[in-house]
Amino acid sequence: MTKSVILSCFLLSSMMASAQQNLVQYVKPIIGTSKMGHTYPGATVPFGAVQLSPETDTLSYEVNGKYNGDVYKYCAGYKYEDKTITGFSHTHFSGTGHSDLGDFLIMPTQGKLQLNPGVASNPKGGYRSAYSHNNEVAEAGYYKVKLDDDNIMAELTSTTRVGMHQYTFPKSDQSHIILDLMAGIYNYDEKTVWTYVRVVNDTLVTGYRQTNGWARTRTVYFAMSFSKPFKSYGRKSYDAKQAYRGFWGKFNQEQNFPEIAGKKLKMFFDFDTREGEKIKIKFALSPVSQENALQNMRAEISGWDFEKVKAQAQAAWNKELNKIQVNTSSDNKINFYTALYHAYINPTTYTDINGEYKGLDQGVHKADGFTNYTTFSLWDTYRALHPFFNITQPARSNDMVKSMLAHYDQSSLHMLPIWSHYANDNWCMSGYHSVSVIADAIIKGTYSGDANKALDACVATAKHRDYEGIGYYMDKGYIPAEKSGISVSNNLEYSYDDWSIAQLAKKLNRMDVYNEFIKRSNNWKNNYDSATGFMRPKLADGTFKKEFDPKDTEGQGFIEGNSWNYSFFVPQDPATLIEMMGGKKKFATRLDTLFTMHLPDEFFAHTEDITREGIIGGYVHGNEPAHHIVYLYNWADQPWKTQAQVRHILNMQYKPTADGLGGNDDCGQMSAWYMFSSLGFYPVAPGSDVYSLGSPLVNQAVINLENGKSFTVEAIKQSEKNVYVEKVLLNGKEITDHKIKHADITNGGKLTFYMSSKPKK
C-alpha cells in the first residue's frame, strides 16, 4: 500500500470518527429526579420496552380508603431527596403526573433474609438499603449505586426488551436476591390481580403478573436468568385466606417448589458468594408470553458480558444523540442532550422480537412491517414531541401512527388513543389529540400508510358522542358547564383537534369533511366572553357562569390550568383571537400582563401539576397548555418579545441539576419545547407545516436528517445578552415573516440568525 493511499485511508477514517461525537457524556439522567420533574435515573435504551431503575420508597396510592397525595412524588418510582433504595424494577414512566408500572422489583441482600421492605427511618428493619448520591452514577443506558447496608454494588444496563443487573457481593453464605412481585408504583392492596412463577431450573425462572390500575387489564410476562445457580429458593404468600384453594396443600410450597401462583407473592433466591463476586441477572419482558420473553432474552443478550451490553446501550444512545450536533456552552449542552435523551425514552416499544404484541382486544397480533409502540401521553406530547419526531425520527413517527391506527382497529369503542399504555387506554386528560399527531405526520409526509383510512379513524373518534361531552359539543357548539368540570378546556382542545382534522381532509381533497370540521374548529368562540376578554364556562341556557375568576385553577372549567393561560389556546387561529381581543396592540399588552403579573399561591393550591417553580408571572410553563403562548407575540407584530421571553424561559426553567425542571417532563414534552426553542423555531399549531421563529440558544446546530441531508442553524454574535434577532436568512435569503416551513428543514440547508443586544422594533 502506498503512502498516499495510507494517508487517504487515515484521513477518511478520521473524518468518519469525527462525524459522530461522544455526546453520551452530556446526558445527565439525574436531571428532573427532584421536585416536579418526575424523571427516573435508571437504564434504558432509545424507545426501549425496559426501563430498569431504582425505587426509593413504597408509598400506597391510598390511605384509609382515600387518595394519598404523597404518592404523586413517586410517579417515576425514584425521588432524589430520599435516602434509601427499596430495589430495582423494570418498567417506569418518564416525567408523568400520574403513574403505574414498577414491575418485578429485584433487591440483592445478604445476612438474615428479610422479605419486608421496611421503612425509610429504619432501613435495616427490611430489605431496603441506605445509599448516598456520592456513590451513585447515572448515565444514558447505565446506572450504578452502592447499597450501603449490605455493602453490595448494584449496576444496571439494558437492551430494548431485557434488563441486565450486575451485583457485586461481599463474602457470605447468606446472600439473597429478592423478587418482589407485589411491589409497584401507584400501588394499592388489590392492584395485583394474579401472579404466576415457574422455576424452570436452578438458573431460569419465568412467569407473569396481571395488574389493575391506570391500565386495568395489563399483563406482563417475564423470563429471569441468573449467571450462577442458586443453592435454594422459596416464596412467601401474603394472600388473604381464600374460601377454596384446591388440594395444593399437599405440598410445601414455601421452599424449593417450582410452580407458584397467587395475588401477593415474593420470591427469594439464596447464594453463597465470595468476596467481590458478581452475580448477574438477565430479565426479559414480553406483552405476549413467557416463551416470547425467553426469545427476547436469547436474541438480545446471548452471553453474560455486562460491559458489552452497557457499551451497546451507550452506542445506541450516541447514535440517536448525534442526530443533532450542537455548539453551545457546557451547561447548555448538558440541558440539550439530556432533553434529547428524555425525548427519546417514550413512546416505548411494545413488540416482541418476533413482531408479536397484545392488542386492546387482549388478542395476540403481529406487527406487519412496523414496530408497535405504546406509552402515548398525547395531551402533552402532541404539542412538540411528535412534531419533533417528524424532523428527527420520521421512520419511528410513521410506526407510531401505525400503532395508533392498530389501536383504533382493536378498540371496541372504535376510538384512537387518548392516553394508551400496555394494551389499554387509561383515558387520562382531555381532547382527542391522536388526530393532531396523525394529521401532522401525514401533512409533513411522514406517514406511509392509507391516509384516507387514517382520516376516517380521526373522524370516527371526533364523533364519539358519549365521550366527555362530544355530543354536547357537536349539538350546541360548546359543552355546558353543568355537564363537565372541564367544559372550557375540552371545548378549546376539541376545536383545535377538529382544525387538524380539517387540514388533513383538505390535503386529501375530502372537502365535505373539511367543511364540517373547519366549522367545528370555530367552536372555541362560544366560550369567549368579549366583556371580560376571557374564556369562561357557559351554562346550558347560553349564559356565562357568574362565579368566575380567571386566575383560579379549580372549578373554573379548565384542566390543569386557569383562564389566563387557556384564553390564549387557539393555536390554529391566533389572528382571529387577536382581533376578538381588541387588536394586536391590546393583545400584546395582555401577553405582557400574563408574563409579569403575580399569581398568588392560593390560585394553584388545589392542583398537583402546577407549582411555583414552573411559573413566570402568571404564565405556567411547568404545564403544557401554555407552551405555544410565548410565540404569539409574532402574530402581534412584536417578535422581539417572543425572542426575549423564549430565552428567559430557557434559562429559568431548565437547569443541569436534579431539580432542574420546572414541571413534569411529561414523556418528553417539556424537553421537546426546550430543544425546539434552543434551535430557534417552534410548531405552534401541529397539523400545519409552519414553524414560528424565536431566539436560538445554541451557537450552531446541525440536524442530521434520515434522508441523508442536514439542516444547520447558526446564530451569529450569540451571547447571553444578545437575545434579539436582527435578521434571519434561510439559505442566504432574508425571512421577514418570522416563520419557516417543514420542507425548508427536510430539504436541507442553513438558517442563520444575526443576534443583537437591542430589539429590532
Automatic annotation (TrEMBL):
Secretion signal span = 1-19
Residue span(s) of domain Glycosyl hydrolase family? 292-756
| Keyword Calcium belongs to the record | yes
Ranges for domain Glycosyl hydrolase family 92 N-terminal come to: 26-286
GO molecular function annotation: carbohydrate binding; peptide-N4-(N-acetyl-beta-glucosaminyl)asparagine amidase activity
Q: Which cofactor does it need?
A: Ca(2+)
Can you tell which superkingdom this protein's organism belongs to? Bacteria
| Keyword terms, alphabetized | Calcium, Signal
Which cellular components does GO assign to this protein? Answer: cytosol
- What is one process in the GO biological process aspect for this record? glycoprotein catabolic process
- Oxidoreductase as a keyword? no
- What InterPro entries does the database record attribute to this sequence? 6-hairpin_glycosidase_sf (IPR008928), GH-type_carb-bd (IPR014718), GH92_a_mannosidase_put (IPR005887), GH92_N (IPR041371), Glyco_hydro_92 (IPR012939), PNGase (IPR050883)
> What assembly does the database describe for this protein?
Monomer.
PANTHER family tied to this protein:
PEPTIDE N-GLYCANASE PNGASE -RELATED (PTHR12143), SECRETED PROTEIN (PTHR12143:SF39)
Q: What is the protein name given in its UniProt record?
A: Alpha-1,2-mannosidase, putative
